[in-house]
Amino acid sequence: MSLPYSSNSPLPLEIETRRTELADLVMRHVPGEGVHTTTISKLDLIRGDQPTEHSTPALYEPCLCLIAQGRKQACLGEEIYFYDPLHYLIASVSLPISGRVIEASPQEPYLCVRLSLDLAQITELIAETGIPQPPRSQSSRGLFVERVDSSLLDAMSRLLRLLETPADAPTLAPLIIREIYYRLLRSPQGARLQEIAIVDSQAHRIARAIEWLNQHYHKPLRIDDLAQVVNLSSSTLHHRFKSVTAMSPLQYQKQLRLQEARRLMITEGLDASAAGYRVGYESASQFSREYSRQFGAPPLRDLARLRTSA
Prior knowledge:
By secondary structure, the chain is an alpha+beta fold. It has 12 helices and 10 strands. The chain folds into 2 domains: 13-118 and 142-189, Jelly Rolls (Sandwich), CATH 2.60.120; 199-310, Homeodomain-like (Arc Repressor Mutant, subunit A, Orthogonal Bundle). Helices cover 47% and strands 19% of the residues. The longest helix is centred in the last third of the chain and has 19 residues, at 249-267.
């Protein structure tokens, strides 16, 4: 899923003007590398001064990722997505994704704006504005890339400017975020976002199944029980779940378990056996085997590599 843009390719003039403005605004609020929270709820700013050597697994909550500078790769299962100043990324459901910055330098750092998506607000917006509902057959991946336009860049820049007038933000930020949601719904792939947000659609039920798994990943999983929770047949659940996430519910659960175990070892200092047990593994050897398959090395070696790269 490669895209034609590279840092050496010229952007359309209007897009470049908006992109430059957005990059300048981001730089004012990111003194160094990393993820920077802001005073506006749902809004984070991200900076990277160099490409990342290894992909970093993380659970992406529903969000919009809009790059002002640089380029990034996201992997969902075996699928690879690239996004850049011409293309934004949408995760419409929570997904275990591995991400890697592929274009960045100290002179031109990777700069990204991440806005969380509130599906309840999006549902209200669909009802209030009368945006036509998509055919149910359009339910597909919960991760997609779309071409950016100047109106979306303009709205995001106005949202970031509110960081410099904090007294205005509580009143104006929700209005601008609502505008951003509206523009995403009106985009060529807005139907994907609509389908997830529409209550009682099959895609919405898959989103509920994902939420349930996120809360109960450490427990044994029976597909029939999960299907009953979201009121779908087991076969429909399996088919639709894989359509949205590119993996089966059991594969999704495994990704959650392994990512959480890795986090526990890094942030809480748990050893491999304790971390594996905490996330639901009864066999230490199975945990080590699946961890190696996921992260490319056994737990101890992987943690040593992470500490060295840090």
